[in-house]
Amino acid sequence: MSLFQKLMIQNGRKVALESGDHAFMQGDSNSNIYFVQSGLLKAYYIRADGKEHIKSFLPEGSIIGSMVALVDGDPCTFSLVASEPTTTIALPYKILADAAQSDIGLANALVGFLGTYGKRKEQREYQLLSLSAEDRFALLVETMPDIADRVSQADLAAYIGITPQALSRIKRRLK
């Protein structure tokens, strides 16, 4: 367990979410960072046309927060919902930032986390902008095989950026 996770467990509060419960919604003010102890979270955007675009799935061991809310205090740009019964640890970002000021090990862990977070965001951007839907689906199945079994066809399609019907055609072609 990382220093980062230990701090969260020691200083955070346990939040139990049932499937469909939100930790926060797009537009909310929420300065917490969340550590997923068990279950699965889904981070998603609601577009102006009302359609859902899934940013990421967050299984056990994941850490997430709305960076614009954490850093600037602006409203969250995405929503965070439990896809199945989930237990998280919520920690106000200020506690983490303050603790990192006086603990070099924790500061290094935070820098490592932010580097990994930035890398993941860049990889996701590349996938959405440069890969075909079929390649994005194949990559999802290869890198997160358990996620494909834990979420609905509609959620898989929204993550890949296609309709559920298009995903069905891709699955048939890949068999």
Instruction: Give the helix tally.
Output: 8
Mean pLDDT: 93
Distance between the termini: 39 Å
**Amount of helix:** 40-55%
**SS-based structural class?**
alpha+beta
CATH topology of one domain: Jelly Rolls
**Total DSSP E strands:** 8
General description of the model:
- The protein has a domain at 3-101: Jelly Rolls, CATH 2.60.120.10.
- It is an alpha+beta fold and 175 residues long.
- It has eight helices and eight strands; from the N terminus they run H-E-E-E-E-E-E-H-E-E-H-H-H-H-H-H.
- It is globular.
- Strand 4 (40-46) and strand 5 form a beta hairpin.
- It is 50% helix and 25% strand.
- A four-stranded antiparallel beta sheet has the order 1-8-3-6. A four-stranded antiparallel beta sheet has the order 2-7-4-5.
What keywords describe this structure?
single chain, 175 residues, alpha+beta, Jelly Rolls, four-stranded antiparallel β-sheet, 50% helix, 25% strand
Topology at a glance:
Blueprint: H1 3-11, E1 13-17, E2 22-24, E3 32-38, E4 40-46, E5 52-59, E6 63-64, H2 67-72, E7 79-82, E8 86-92, H3 93-102, H4 104-130, H5 133-143, H6 145-150, H7 153-160, H8 164-174
Helix pairs in contact: 3-4, 7-8
Provide a compact summary of the structure.
This protein is of the alpha+beta class and about 180 residues long.
